[in-house]
Amino acid sequence: MGIHKFEDILSWQKSRILVISIYKLFEKHKDFGFKNQIERAAVSVMNNIAEGFERKSNNEFRYFLFVSKGSVAEVRSMLYLAKDLNKISNEDFEKLYNLTLEISKLLSGLIKTL
């Protein structure tokens, strides 16, 4: 089997879960600047995987995967801030923190295979 479309990529699938989780977790938050930043960073993770894949060039795909990796680090950093400011519970932090680490590792593996 192989990867025929970006939807087949596990890191994209996990990133989609991350985006949905972030949107649901912060949907009622009043700090719109914070909410917007973490949502945009999360969306950037999955969209850069998709965009890079569609470029049909390993070099361009690799570039977009690195951008995606940066965005997942931004989400992780924002999660620390959310926890420190008591915007999220420790349980939500741990769940999403671990998901961002998993996505980052998947991206690193994909980058290495290219």
Task: Report strand %.
Answer: under 5%
Shape: elongated
Which CATH architecture is right? Up-down Bundle
Give the biggest beta sheet: none
Structural write-up:
The chain is mostly helical and 114 residues long. It has a single domain, classed as 23S rRNA-intervening sequence (de novo design (two linked rop proteins)), CATH 1.20.1440.60. It has four helices and no strands. Helix 1 runs antiparallel to helix 2, helix 1 runs antiparallel to helix 4 and helix 2 runs antiparallel to helix 3. The protein is elongated and about 40 Å long. It starts with 9 loop residues before the first helix and ends with a helix. The model has no long low-confidence stretch (mean pLDDT 97).
Keywords:
mainly alpha; 114 residues; de novo design (two linked rop proteins)
Please provide a brief summary of the model.
The chain is mostly helical.
List the helices and strands and how they pair.
Elements: H1 10-26, H2 32-54, H3 58-84, H4 90-113
Helix pairs in contact: 1-2, 1-4, 2-3, 3-4
